[in-house]
Task: inverse folding
């Protein structure tokens, strides 16, 4: 009886001890956690006390702050790390995009002329067209600063530089500085965002190649609607000096621009964008005679990008047209382009573009009205290869007829490359 009872008693004692041991371990763990929490609370109270002292001295005796942390003292800190956003807060995103061009075929002195010039400057066989330097950063939680500087053969020029306010009341946004006017689509693109090597004829003729840009203010707002679309209205006022387009003759000779944008998804794979534009200012003429110069425009963009093959195939169709009413002409000048670009594979793209632009001809002080022989027409085809998202190779074969005077066949080659962080441009 005694032999069997002793092991049984030991078994029951161990069985009762196990929960007690586990409970003791759990109590030790809770004690350690409470101790660690108390230590964190003391540290937080010490930090808050130090902050209160600094705040008190900042509004009172500024010398007390200097006494607390002398500028000449170096405080070594072990395992010091910089917060990930610290450098970002003080330094803007900086990027450089270079564009190099090659030209073969007929010499073309007519490409860069404006609407009232007889000839411009022919392209060189090889040329470094432009280096665009961009600086972009948030100024504060309410605004972002963006600067784009173009460096070319003629020197450096501020292409755009503005503050963009994104949190205005009632859903408004605004930009102030030097801006590209929101007229159509092609006018707003920088060199590296164009899907072609050159500018369409209508931009070259009516906006002097560089596009419609000036110092001014732009205000935009989107509107709710029952069609499930994105509708945005933009109103802009500029100083009145846009080279070759508008020229301020008096202090109140500003130029004005408006744009209305309608964007809607047609399905999972496609969308449609329609825009209308209107601009008016004082006419820039060789003699400075002034008068009104008015533009109205329409742009349509269709995009197709299947979700299942979005990185391999896509299509964009574009049509843009404008009408120009000038004080020195009793007829309206017209220009348009129509383009289609298809993505063949992940890195290869192909496209075609048709151009038409009326052209006045200056004889003495008079502008001879445009007729069929003063309308320039062009057709071009492009092939583009993207080795990566930071470089691009493009070839453009172009045939241009300048009225009934001359037809020019050219091959344009382009290399673009980018370094640094370059923000996205307007969609």
Result:
């Amino acid at each position: 009886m005694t032999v069997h009872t002793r092991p049984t008693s030991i078994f029951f004692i161990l069985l009762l001890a196990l929960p007690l041991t586990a409970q003791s371990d759990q109590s030790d763990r809770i004690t350690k956690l409470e101790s660690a929490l108390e230590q964190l609370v003391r540290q937080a109270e010490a930090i808050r006390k130090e902050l209160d002292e600094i705040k008190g001295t900042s509004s009172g005796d500024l010398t007390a702050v200097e006494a607390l942390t002398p500028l000449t003292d170096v405080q070594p800190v072990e395992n010091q790390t910089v917060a990930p956003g610290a450098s970002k807060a003080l330094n803007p995103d900086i990027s450089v995009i270079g564009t190099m061009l090659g030209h073969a075929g007929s010499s073309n002195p007519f490409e860069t002329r404006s609407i009232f010039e007889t000839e411009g400057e022919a392209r060189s066989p090889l040329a470094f067209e432009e280096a665009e330097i961009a600086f972009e950063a948030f100024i504060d939680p309410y605004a972002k600063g963006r600067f784009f500087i173009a460096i070319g053969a003629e020197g450096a020029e501020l292409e755009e530089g503005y503050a963009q306010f994104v949190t205005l009341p009632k859903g408004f946004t605004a930009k102030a500085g030097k801006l590209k006017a929101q007229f159509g689509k092609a006018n707003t693109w920088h060199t590296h965002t164009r899907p072609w090597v050159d500018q369409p004829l209508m931009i070259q003729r009516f906006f002097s190649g560089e596009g419609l840009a000036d110092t001014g203010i732009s205000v935009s707002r989107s509107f709710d609607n029952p069609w499930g679309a994105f509708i945005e209205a933009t109103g802009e006022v500029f100083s009145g000096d846009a080279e070759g387009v508008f020229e301020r003759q008096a202090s109140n000779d500003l130029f004005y621009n408006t744009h209305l944008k309608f964007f809607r998804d047609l399905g999972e794979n496609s969308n449609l964008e329609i825009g209308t534009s209107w601009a008016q200012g004082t006419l820039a003429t060789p003699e400075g005679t002034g008068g009104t110069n008015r533009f109205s425009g329409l742009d349509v963009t269709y995009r197709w990008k299947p979700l299942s093959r979005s990185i391999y195939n896509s299509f964009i169709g574009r049509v843009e047209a404008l009408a120009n009413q000038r004080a020195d002409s009793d007829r309206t000048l017209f220009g348009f382009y129509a383009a289609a670009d298809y993505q063949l594979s992940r890195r290869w793209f192909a496209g075609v573009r048709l151009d038409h632009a009326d052209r006045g001809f200056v004889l003495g002080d008079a502008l001879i009205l445009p007729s069929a022989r003063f309308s320039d027409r062009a057709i071009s085809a492009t092939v583009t290869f993207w080795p990566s998202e930071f470089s691009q190779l493009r070839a453009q074969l172009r045939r241009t007829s300048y009225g009934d005077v001359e037809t020019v066949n050219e091959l344009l080659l382009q290399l673009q490359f980018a370094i640094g962080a370059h923000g996205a441009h307007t969609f």
About this structure: Residues 1-5, 57-86, 362-373 have pLDDT under 50 and may be disordered. Helices lie at 2-58, 63-68, 86-90, 201-206. Residues 2-68 form one domain.
